[in-house]
Design brief:
Aminopeptidase; 12 helices; globular
Length: 353
């Protein structure tokens, strides 16, 4: 009898890590663990299944945005128990990266220990850092006030929409900013620990010249429970493997254009240039956009203003509801869609090896 989808989900970072390692044990893959320098009890775990000297590699990553870990971890757990993992084609390695942002995973925050949104941190830090969106200062003063009042903040946000349109609001929010270390969507001032560890993991496969694919699992955008494949670049293989979920050339993805420093950028810059490369975000919808926005803004405000523990707990609950819903239907949809996409990818890789 097939397991209830909820059985693949955990309630915390600690239990998610334990379940991940237990699920991987039967496959006897190569395990590497990296401890966060500020807290050795918090780790990023890497499990490699399949070929020791691969010609093609699939990376499946979870927990870049810490509060989103539990969905990605559940998908990884289901895949580690999937029969296909015992029958990988010769030359293929599948690398599962669990809890890339262990601080955020443990504390239920999107950001890391330095308030950095890691999906804005994968830059060439020797180059000129991207300038903020023209609306950045105005927007951030609205959503990070001295006294929290979300109704008033929404009025200010609505004024921006009326003046500039919702597309410019989304671009201002999601592009990332590199000037206010206490602000939302802060991309950092240097390469962060999680960034370095991820690149180290990818660099181990620098010799691979076949196909190399990254599936980075996220929650918070799109229809509830729907797993949409988002990519900044398109390939014929991607459309063949995953179908219409990959946005076509003439349509923009549901994330705002102009986002800087994404993990996909770091990934593509780190692999062998001779390899055929694809990096996608598998994004699962949760709540309405402005509900998730409120949770992010409140969490940022609480920590930026050193609010008391009861307000931190409230922020944590809001983040959980916005990025890791507890209902069984959502969990079922997430693990089933995640399994579908990863199996499609393994089968697709098998067909071109």
């Amino acid at each position: 009898m097939e397991n209830d989808a909820s059985s693949y989900f955990s309630e915390s970072y600690s239990s998610a890590r334990q379940c991940f390692l237990e699920a991987a044990a039967d496959l006897r893959g190569l395990h590497r663990s990296y401890s966060l320098p500020q807290d050795n009890s918090l780790t990023f775990d890497e499990i490699t299944i399949g070929a020791n000297k691969p010609t093609s590699v699939l990376f499946v990553n979870s927990g870049l945005h810490g509060a989103e870990l539990l969905a990605g971890s559940a998908i990884q757990n289901k895949m580690l128990k999937h029969p296909i993992m015992h029958a990988l084609p010769e030359g293929l390695a599948v690398v599962f990266g669990h809890a890339l942002n262990p601080y955020g995973c443990y504390y239920g925050r999107r950001v890391n220990e330095n308030n950095v949104d890691l999906n804005r941190n994968f830059l060439d830090w020797e180059q000129i850092i991207p300038s903020p969106h023209a609306l950045n200062a105005r927007l951030h003063s609205i959503i990070n006030p001295d006294v929290w009042n979300w109704k008033e903040s929404l009025k200010g946000v609505d004024e921006i929409v009326q003046e500039h349109g919702v597309g410019q609001l989304q671009a201002a929010l999601q592009r990332g900013q590199y000037i206010d270390p206490n602000g939302i969507f802060y991309g950092g001032a240097q390469s962060e620990w999680s960034n370095d560890i991820f690149i180290e993991m990818v660099d181990r496969h620098k010799s691979v010249t076949g196909h190399i694919v990254l599936i980075d699992i996220h929650t918070g955008l799109g229809g509830r429970g729907q797993g949409t494949i988002l990519s900044g670049h398109k390939t014929a293989l991607g459309r063949e493997w995953w179908g219409l979920d990959v946005p076509s050339e003439d349509k923009k993805p549901i994330t705002a254009e102009g986002i800087t420093g994404t993990i996909g950028c770091g990934f593509r810059q780190s692999v062998n240039p001779k390899a055929t490369t694809m990096s996608v975000c598998l994004e699962f919808g949760t709540v309405k956009l402005f509900e998730a926005f409120e949770a992010l803004a409140y969490d940022n405000w609480v920590h930026a203003h050193n609010r008391p523990e009861n307000e931190v707990l409230k922020a944590n609950n809001m983040m959980c509801e916005s990025f890791s819903p507890r209902d069984k239907v959502w969990k079922r949809d997430v693990v089933n869609r995640g399994e579908e996409v990863i199996v499609q990818t393994i089968e697709g890789l098998s067909s071109v090896m």
